């Protein structure tokens, strides 16, 4: 067991700084090094967490090589994740990477292989795995729902107003638009709570750019191996944040609801249309605390590279469908694709 968990943080923006605060608040954990290409972000973050001058790095790799680390948290633009996670795993450093893990399917496959072959842990920042509502829904699926047959999920957010001009609306850095950003959480929650295997997607999107790379609104029809179907809506041009996930089977269903970024509420509905709210089971653990547990106790990462691969596969199929007008198969193979001659 590690005594004091020493963690470096790469990316000190809107996600990285709050994540560093979560880590720094854990007893016997410490942010000991920071990396950011921005001089101001690097200076500000280092001063907040008391990181000395010689542990402030411009590059991720320099921090990995120069600092004495038990773990590293990565909160950089999505398209940088693969290279940065590879660098950490090659050095056998436990890693927390913000979602989405990858915006390229072969990169996602590569990280599944690397993480499962490595002694270092790889945790993905899908925090609904840490939410009591989603955890309880997943645990009670067989008893309360049975075999899921009809699913719906959505999230609304005033995303585009705040993201135009930032890296999140630059597809070379973000991989896409709202579906790859907040929408990634919705897809993950649906896939993780049910454990279903997606087989194909049909999607419609409204894009914010002529190249049709940055989606603002997305409507997905997802088909699953067991015959279930799902309707998924992701809006980045709505005035408020609202989220829902409904899952129905022969025995009943569950409903998760929430607004803004607080806790989500869960109730179960039986086959006589009676709703039952489970007893309150406390607040969500945050990602920083969970990551420290992974490092210190050898705990299983709450969200893994395999979870992230499913999300990337559905997301990439949805973008292809929206651009081509065709229904697209979801490719969940873990081996890299081989292009025909």
Automatic annotation (TrEMBL):
Gfo/Idh/MocA-like oxidoreductase N-terminal domain: residues covered: 5-126
Molecular functions (GO terms): nucleotide binding
All residue ranges annotated as the GFO/IDH/MocA-like oxidoreductase domain in the record: 134-254
Pfam family, one: GFO_IDH_MocA_C3
Superkingdom assignment: Archaea
InterPro entries found in the cross-reference section: Gfo/Idh/MocA-like_OxRdtase_N, Gfo/Idh/MocA_Oxidoreductases, GFO_IDH_MocA-like_dom, NAD(P)-bd_dom_sf
Protein name from the UniProt record: Gfo/Idh/MocA family oxidoreductase
